[in-house]
Design a protein that fits this description.
Structural class: alpha+beta
Shape: elongated
Strand order of the largest sheet: 3-25-6-7-8-5-4-24
Helix content: 25-40%
Radius of gyration: 43 Å
Number of strands: 27
Strand content: 15-25%
Length: 616
Amino acid sequence: MVDRITNLAANSQFLGYMQKTQQRMLDYGTQLSNNNYLSQDYMGISKRTQYLLSLETSYDNYQAFKLNNTTMTLRLDTLSQAMTSMETTINNFKKELKKFVNETGKTADLTKNLQTFAFNSLKSLEADLNISVGGRSLLGGGRTDTSPVTLNLGSLTDFQTKYNGATVTYPTTRDAHIEHFDLSRDSNNHTNWLEFRRDADNDGTTKSNGSITAYDAAMFSNVTVGSTIEVSGTTNNNGYYTVKSITNGGKTIEVETRMLTDEANNAAGKITLADGTELSAALGDFTDLSFTRTDDKITAAGGTTPLASLAVGTKFTVSGTAKNNGTYTVASVDDPGGTWVKIERKALTDEGTTLSGDTTETRIQSPTVVGALAFTDNAPSSDTIVSTAAVFTNVKAGMKVTFASTTSNNTSFTVKEVSSDYKTITVVENVTAEAASPVGTTLEIPGAVGTVKSLDYYNGDELTQTHRLDETRKFDFNTNALDPAFEKAIRAMAIVAQGVYGTEGGLDQNLTRATDAIHLIESAYNGSTTVSAPYGTERTGNIQALSVTISYHSVMISQATKSHDKYISFLDKQITGIEQGDPMTIASNMLSEETALKASYEILARIKDLNMTNFL
């Protein structure tokens, strides 16, 4: 072997050069087969990795902005279509309303048609305001998982039954319209927390409203006068009421009622029918009028059948009296002489008391008096409970009272009637005869159980949502169904739709409502109005301005998207320039390495065959 030219060291070094050439050729092949990427990881381009990572982060961010903008564009486009629909609904109602106001003869058909149009417009608004995309409500503020508007319309008949336009009227101010509360107990967690009184001052000789009083806290201090409330869960007073005033330091709501005030022999009073016919002492129809609250009766003295023209359902107006001026509807007439009528009453029923609350007991018998209380079975008539003292002063018909420490009557009874001397109550249930109750018998008079809540239409919130266009630009999206544009439109339509034609609360009897509604609907449409504000200063905001705002947001997104596309394209080129090579260059380099590798193999083969003899 001494005659060989090569040695182990030289051979190993040559093979190392060949392996490197082969690796470079394989790397170029990998680049060609993988979209010309110069490296399969960041280590292969380590000198430019930091810059590349920065570019890729920006690229991902702007792709996310673009996707977010695409989603927002879909929402805005959908909302824009709903806005167009609502704008048409509001404008059409405005035209119909102004046409009605300008009519010289407002017939029954004309009036009913307008109210039907108003009601159908409300239903259209409700549907458009509840627009959603992919299950996400667009006009509920931050509450995107629920329909934001619930008008509880049902049918026009249902709506007019709830809002009869007389004792229960649709709210006329924004604050009353959007009132929101739901109370079923007081601040001390009493559930027997209410007292209902037909007459707030408990004096039939004075004009008064009905009252709802909380037991021990100013629970109603923030309730808005003019709002509509719903009472439920009571024995006798479930229903809808219009708030007339808040008294008693916020503990009491006084509600709109329709009841007479005791007044006798008023010669100045007169009755005017809907057609303008007037009945009065001055015309000889009667000598005087008397009014009694307990039986809802108006009685005329003198004249010949003075009130015979007042049939059931007739609406009439009383004026010239000291206590009973107002509008009423005849409830019943069974007087052949035509001397009296009974009116339709809207009043609370005495129920509960704020004097005892949940747990306080009223002791009805002195420990020193035996036999002061008797339970009497009057079958088949109603049973009675009789005391020797006026212990039932705070008990009212409809209450449930509970006795304790009796011999056989430790239970609750429903009060049917209370005697005028407050010594006897008549009850619905049967009692066990008991002539003399034991010493220490007690009576618990609980407050009334019930829930008082507002009738607001909005179920969402007023959370402002921020949409970010990119890293530096954003806009606030705070349009919701509580916006003045929508709220004023709903209020205008509902004010017109309330009250059945021909009744005390009907539109035909309250034509100023149509004129008043013009201001609201014009203000809701474009902010410009031809009539004065009937309900005080209204909040600005109209459907056309909202449409412009939404269109502006769409334009902002469109411009941002174009900008994003350009920047994303720039980033893509920069990233490609770092990550990828030119395919022609890569292919050329790979061929060069392949040629060099072939030459190396040939040289290696020749060298292995050489020895000193051959070399010389």
